[in-house]
Amino acid sequence: MINYTEKIPNNVDLGRDRVLQRALEHWQPAYMGWWYDMGPDESHNYEVYLRTAISVEPDGWAQFGYVKMPDYRWGIFLQPRDEKREVNFGAHKGQPAWQEVPGEYRSILRRIIVTQGDTEPASVEQQRMLGASCPSMYDLRNIFQVNVEEGRHLWAMVYLLHRYFGRDGREEAESLLARRSGDTDNPRILGAFNEPTPDWLAFYMFTFFTDRDGKFQLCALAESGFDPLSRTCRFMLTEEAHHMFVGETGVSRIIQRSCEVMKEHKLDDPSDVRALGVIDLQTIQKYLNFHYSVTLDLYGSDVSSNAANYFTSGLKGRFRETKLEDDHVLSEAEYPVFEVVSGKIVPKSVPALTALNERLRDDYIEEIADGVARWQRVIDNAGVPFRLTLPHKGFHREIGNFAGHFISPEGEVLSGESWKKRESQWLPTPGDHAFVQSLMSGRVVEPGKFANWIAPPARGVNNQPLNFEYVRFH
Ligand SMILES: [Fe+2]
Ligand SMILES: [Fe+2]
After folding, report:
1. How far, in Å, is the centroid of ligand 2 from the Cα of 35?
2. How far is the CA of 94 from the centre of ligand 1 (A)?
3. How far is CA 447 from the centre of its chain?
4. Which partner for 460 in 93, 332, 408, 464 could form a disulfide, CB atoms 3.0-4.6 Å apart?
5. Percent of the chain, pLDDT > 90?
6. How far does the centroid of ligand 1 lie from the alpha carbon of residue 243, in Å?
7. CA of 176 relative to ligand 2 center, distance in Å
8. Can you give the three-state secondary structure of 234-253, one letter per residue?
9. CA of 436 relative to ligand 1 center, distance in Å
10. Residue 49 CA, ligand 2 centroid: distance in Å
11. In b/e form, how buried is each residue of 444-471, taking b as 16+ CB within 10 angstroms?
């Protein structure tokens, strides 16, 4: 029996909600079983300097202290309710926001929540072996922070399933613990969440690119007319920012370190760079190409009647919906998508309602481009003549209008044969992975020490020094 208010910090009045308590009585032990099996490997006895959310108040959502990770208090938080909130787009625009699930949208809403929820434990599974090769105690602590918060995001989605979807919701909540990333029989729902995250460069790329997809999906769901979903996603977004910070600064520190070594030894040939135990910029570019392209697929088909339905029903809005200046109904508007016609990529105007996936993808690309420009500045400041580029959005795609076509990073349409010939220049090869992993054969955990292939961060966590003992091993 769980002491609800103690063990599960929440602002959903869990202590008085018998239905929810009963659902959680079954699910919570199953969740812990999942965490022991699929959470960070060998971490159960560590005490980790973690941030825990214990309320949604400014002083409550980021409490720092040592926690044994299985004792982390996975809480349930919704942004406080705005009584005057309305459905802000689609056919129900202007109605009061829904506090209960509208009957006609029950199954699509459940599917939206399950699809989002499925990504949260998936990433924990993908990252579970990385502790054994961490580049520092600081980084080890950060990956654990990301992992417990993804666990909490799963709780957030499971709360909605338990509270609003009855028996179906409870079954879905169980399935969320049963699927496994990369499993052939019972995989996670979305492609990028079944790809391995085999090394720390992949981890930082994942948190930069794929957690940012999470941000954009959450932003679109934060606009939802179903108010509990909106409020849940708003609170999750406060945590997501840290995950993207870990990714962006992680890649940036790797680039910085490689550039330092290149300058110091006056060399730029990738094999010379590798010989000094740092990652060549060419390999970083290939990882970037991979993670960017598989993440673009997560937004779905360029033209999608599902996306149109989600919007018209008031369930999933656009990025910053309420800040956009249009009718929020999109009955007349058009939006350009791209398609491949006789060997050329050409724009095509389609009803904006059907192009909402593409629009969200474009909003995402804009933000990604800014981040890549910040990485470029690290290279430029070091005086290294190398340009990191974002590949064309048709490159290496498996979903949408570009699927089945062979597009180069520059956006040329190629034959399958000539694409294959150059694939190893564009995407990480088994040899590249083997090299990166060879740098990460053991973990660096002496406080204040960093692996040779990465620069230290600008500052520590929560104003602690870099040589702080972020993880206590026992
Ligand atoms: Fe998440
Ligand atoms: Fe995340």
Report:
1. 17
2. 30
3. 28
4. 464
5. 92
6. 8
7. 17
8. HHHHHHHHHHHHHHHHHHHH
9. 26
10. 18
11. bbeeeebbebbbbbeebbeeeebebebb
What residues contact 358, with CB distance under 8 A and at least 6 apart? 299, 302, 303, 335, 337, 400
pLDDT per position as a tens digit, 369-420? 999 999 999 999 999 999 999 999 999 999 999 999 999 999 999 999 999 9
Ligand with minimal distance to 156 CA: 1
49 strand-pairing partners: 66
Q: How far is the centre of ligand 1, averaged over its atoms, from the C-alpha of 240 (Å)?
A: 6
CA distances from 428 to 4, 174, 195, 289, 448 (A): 47, 36, 13, 9, 31
**Distances in whole angstroms, Cα of residue 4 to Cα of each of 20, 31, 45, 73:** 11, 15, 24, 11
Task: End-to-end CA distance of the chain: give it in Å, rounded.
Answer: 29
Ligand nearest to the CA of 242: 2
User: Distance, CA 271 to ligand 2 centroid (Å)?
Assistant: 34
Helices (H) and strands (E) in the chain, counts: 14, 7
Task: Go through the chain and tell me how many residues it has.
Answer: 474
Q: 272: CA distance to ligand 2 center in Å? A: 35
Ligand 1 centroid distance, CA of 153 (Å): 5
Q: Which of 439, 466, 464 is nearest to 135 (CA)?
A: 439
pTM of the model: 0.97
3-state helix, strand, coil in the chain (%, to 5): 55, 10, 35
Q: What is the pLDDT of residue 2?
A: 64
The Cα 268–Cα 378 span in angstroms is 16
pLDDT in tens, 42-81: 999 999 999 998 888 877 778 899 999 889 999 899 999 9
Angle at alpha carbon of residue 352, lines to 347 and 357, rounded to 5°: 85
Q: What is the pLDDT of residues 117-143, one digit of tens each?
A: 999 999 999 999 999 999 999 999 999
Confidence of residue 332 (pLDDT cuts 50, 70, 90): very high
Which residues are CB-contacts of 409 (< 8 A; sequence separation ≥ 6)?
A: 289, 389, 391, 392, 395, 426
